[in-house]
UniProtKB/TrEMBL annotation:
This is DUF2007 domain-containing protein. Residues 1-63 form the DUF2007 domain. Transmembrane segments: none annotated. Gene3D superfamilies: UreE, C-terminal domain. Pfam families: DUF2007 (PF09413). It comes from the Bacteria. SUPFAM superfamilies: GlnB-like. InterPro entries: DUF2007 (IPR018551), N-reg_PII-like_a/b (IPR011322). The lineage of its organism: Bacteria, Pseudomonadati, Pseudomonadota, Alphaproteobacteria, Rhodobacterales.
Length: 72
């Protein structure tokens, strides 16, 4: 699996998951329960992962929808 998105904004994760699901691309959200450790203040980023084979198309979908992604 490859990281497609890392953010502290939960709305970006939800939007990205909806976009990818609409294109039948499976994704997995990591670090969801880290808020227990940080005290629910939202400073630790969440990561969205996709399969290696879906990475390039998932990246294109997110970029086309105005996500600024890190270069990997």
């Amino acid at each position: 699996m490859k990281q497609i998105l890392r953010t502290t904004d939960p709305t970006q994760i939800v939007f990205a998951k909806a976009l990818l699901a609409g294109e039948d691309i499976d994704c997995f959200e990591m670090d969801v329960h880290m808020s227990v450790l940080e005290g629910s203040i939202g400073i630790l980023p969440r990561r969205l992962m996709v399969r290696d084979g879906d990475y390039l198309i998932a990246r294109r979908i997110l970029i086309d929808n105005d996500f600024s992604l890190e270069d990997v």
